[in-house]
Amino acid sequence: IVCLTSNSSKSLSARIKVVIADKTGFSKDEFHYQNPQVEDYEPKIGPISGGTNVTIYGEELDTGVDIQVFLGRSKCLNLRVTKTRMRCTTSQFQNITRKRRSISNDETLVVTFDGLPPVYGANVTSFKYVPDPVITDITPRITFPSSDRQINVTGSDLNGIHSPKIRLIFQDKTYVESVCGKPSYGNMICPFPNLTRTVTAHLQAELSFSLDAVTTWEVFSGYPKFKSMTIVPDPIITKFDGVFVLKTPTLEIK
Description:
254 residues; mainly beta; Immunoglobulin-like; seven-stranded mixed beta sheet; 1 helix; 22 strands; elongated
């Protein structure tokens, strides 16, 4: 038996009663009328290519059968639901034009439960689709394997990325990667990935970035300036005799 519930003026719970001719039966479990509430969500910014993992907070979020989440007209994918949380991943911003790719686009969070809206809290403001990030510089380009150096990435619209990673790919197609820090609008810091190989000569590694669903910077073939990084052997300091003095107006080293 399949049926569609009518509305209820209040929250209530009761067993389902089924009457067939002169026979009456009751469900083992209770059916609950409840009002879902969406109280907040994060983050509220992401790239127009999508790939941002969004968490929605509220109450009674597991209400109904057909639950959907949209940011404007862009559907939030891979939805997972519990009573107090929803998680989904933004899809590409819809209706992209050349003009819209270069500006921010504010979109309304829309959640439906069997086609009906929930109660929204005051913190549920618009989601901002921002242009995909642009990388303009990466430093340093030469380093050694055991260093704790950080790779400094500069550009624009980096703040829309929430799960950035840097990857070094070697000629044999093996790679190492590390998770970068949370970017600001124009800057991102990535720790140098840990190498699992011994470096005895200059080693070239191709650069690649994982920036949510933005694919532009996965391959740098069109950007030869950033295509590779040089890894040199660790420096060796040999023992020397005597005292050597390096003196400047502000520094003296012995």
